[in-house]
Amino acid sequence: MQTTASAPAGNPQELPFTGFPAWAIALIGAAMLATGLGLRKVSS
Predict the structure, then answer these.
(1) What DSSP character marks residue 14?
(2) Ramachandran bin of 37, using left for φ above 0, alpha for ψ from -120 to 50, beta for the remaining angles
(3) Are the CB atoms for 16 and 8 separated by under 8 Å?
(4) 34: buried, middle or exposed (CB in 10 Å: 19+, 13-18, 0-12)?
(5) Distance between CA atoms of residues 36 and 44, nearest Å
(6) Per-residue tens of pLDDT for the chain, all 44 residues
(7) C-alpha 2: how far from its chain's center?
């Protein structure tokens, strides 16, 4: 009996696409950063 692991075909220099919306996390992070900086400026 022979078992083989199937490796994804593609460029080994490239990460596989998982479908996770990383751009949404980056956008939320940027909004939180801008809000924090704005509140800091208003409070001082």
Answers:
(1) S
(2) alpha
(3) yes
(4) exposed
(5) 12
(6) 566 655 556 677 777 777 888 899 999 999 999 999 999 999 98
(7) 37
